[in-house]
Recover the amino acids of this structure.
């Protein structure tokens, strides 16, 4: 189904998942409004540069880059508090220390405000439930309930659907879909620790590398 004159607010971190989600929304016929958050994460500079590179490739003109420095004050995550080490020993049981408290809820709330301003009827977010790091705010049930809350808390004429096209995919499927859509994976970043070369040992790097391995292709970014 191709849509005309429809806008989608795409939350884009500069990572592989949210980038693919944006490309999928474009394929559906949506005009992309790209939203990126600087939230005092360790790889903030690299993620921002990847966001702009991906937007250039997508031909996105309407971009929002928002600074949410209060995440550093909240802390409680290895991504925003440098006194907490990023785990490198492989995936662990439970919610990892790289979980940023209610990050996706805050991102979606801001995206909803932008959607009202832009007259958009869709928001996309690249959450992955089955092959993620165990983050509670990546669950399909949560996102669906967030959609209900957003529509209850906005104008009556506002009808927003939150798309999460990757929620039931694993990383190898994500890699394959990205290649099919000619997503510039060389411009995406997943590492939690470093900005020059990916560490290859944090949870996010491990998931990404395993996805490429199972897909039978080489990851185009550099690793230490």
């Amino acid at each position: 189904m191709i849509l005309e004159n429809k806008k989608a607010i795409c939350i884009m971190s500069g990572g592989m998942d949210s980038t693919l989600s944006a490309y999928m929304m474009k394929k559906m016929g949506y005009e992309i409004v790209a939203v990126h958050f600087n939230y005092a994460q360790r790889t903030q500079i690299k993620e921002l540069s990847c966001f702009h590179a991906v937007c250039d490739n997508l031909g996105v003109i309407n971009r929002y880059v928002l600074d949410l420095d209060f995440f550093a004050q909240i802390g409680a995550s290895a991504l925003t508090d440098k006194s907490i080490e990023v785990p490198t020993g492989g995936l662990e049981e439970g919610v990892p220390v790289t979980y940023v408290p209610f990050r996706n809820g805050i991102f979606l709330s801001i995206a909803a405000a932008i959607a009202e301003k832009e007259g958009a009827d869709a928001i996309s977010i690249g959450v992955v439930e089955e092959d993620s790091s165990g983050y509670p705010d990546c669950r399909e049930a949560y996102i669906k309930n967030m959609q209900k809350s957003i529509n209850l808390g906005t104008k009556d004429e506002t009808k927003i659907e939150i798309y999460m096209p990757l929620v039931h995919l694993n990383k190898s499927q994500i890699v394959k879909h990205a290649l099919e859509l000619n997503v510039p994976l060389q411009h995406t970043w997943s590492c939690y620790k470093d900005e020059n070369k990916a560490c290859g040992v944090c949870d996010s790097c491990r998931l990404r590398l395993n996805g490429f391995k199972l897909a039978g292709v080489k990851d185009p970014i550099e690793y230490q």
User: Anything to note?
Assistant: The CA atoms of residues 88 and 202 lie 4 Å apart. The longest strand covers residues 31-38. The beta strands are 7-11, 31-38, 63-67, 122-124, 161-163. The first helix runs from residue 16 to 27.
